[in-house]
Design brief:
By secondary structure, the chain is an alpha+beta fold. The protein contains three helices and eight strands. The chain has a six-stranded antiparallel barrel with strand order 3-4-5-8-7-6. Strand 7 and strand 8 form a beta hairpin.
């Protein structure tokens, strides 16, 4: 018998098994490399030539509008009547929302939103859903109910929010 590692004798069977393992590992490695190369070549060819067949995606139609009823329909109808108020004064800036009350430009909002403008003669800027902006002044407010009415100037075509009982649309 031959001497192997650290003087341990090895038999021809042990050497044969070791050689077989090395051959199997080398074969698996070669197969992996060849498979990877073949995949890369096929993938590159398909990428350059447009693939096996042409794929056409369906063109989307216009998005559906909100249903006439329900929350989405109510929100869509209310959007033109909802405004954003940006109020500056007394060293602070407040942002809030409001509702167009009439075509004359009166807007309902929270009293706390307009408070900085009232206290220091600040500035109120109203932004409409169209993106247009206008200056506004406070008409009146009630701090107990936290309500205020502001008046926009130089704006036409306002859409007042339709108010009424919640059980009727």
């Amino acid at each position: 018998m031959d001497e192997g590692i650290e003087g341990i004798p090895t038999s021809p069977d042990v050497r044969r098994r070791s050689r077989t393992r090395r051959t199997l590992v080398a074969g698996a490695l070669a197969l992996t490399v060849v498979s990877g190369a073949a995949g890369a070549l096929v993938g590159g060819y398909l990428e350059r030539t447009g693939g096996v067949e042409t794929v056409q995606l369906a063109r989307p139609g216009p998005p559906p509008g909100p249903p006439p009823g329900g929350v989405a329909g109510t929100a869509a109808r209310a959007l033109p009547s909802v405004v954003t108020l940006r109020v500056t004064g007394t060293g602070e800036e407040v942002t809030g929302t409001g509702l167009v009350l009439d075509t004359g430009g009166r807007i309902l909002t929270d009293s706390r939103v307009v408070a900085p403008a009232v206290a220091a003669g600040g500035r109120i800027t109203v932004t409409f859903s169209s993106g247009a902006t206008a200056r506004a002044t406070v008409v009146g407010r009630d701090t107990g109910y936290d309500l205020a009415v502001v008046q926009v100037h130089g704006v036409r075509g306002l859409t007042p929010l339709r108010l009424g009982p919640s059980d009727r649309n």
